[in-house]
Amino acid sequence: MIRVLLVEDHTAIRQPMAFMLDREPDLAVVGQAATLAEARGLLEGVDLAILDLDLPDGSGLSLIPALHRVNPNAVALVLTASSNRVTTARAVEAGAAGVIHKSQGLDEVISAVRRAAAGNFLYSPRELVELLRVAGADRDERRAAEAALGRLTPREREVLQALAEGLNDKEIAERLQIEPKTVRTHMMNLLSKLGVDSRLEALVFAVRHGAVRIR
Amino acid sequence: MGRSGAMRVMIANEPRAYREVIAAAFQRLRPHVEVSVVEPVGSDEALARLSPHFVIWSRADEPPSEHLVAWVSLYPGGRNQAVIRLGQERLWVADVEFDQLLWSLDRADQLRGTC
Question: Which residues lie closer than 8 Å to B25 by C-beta, 6 or more apart?
Answer without folding.
Answer: A15, A16, A19, A20, B98
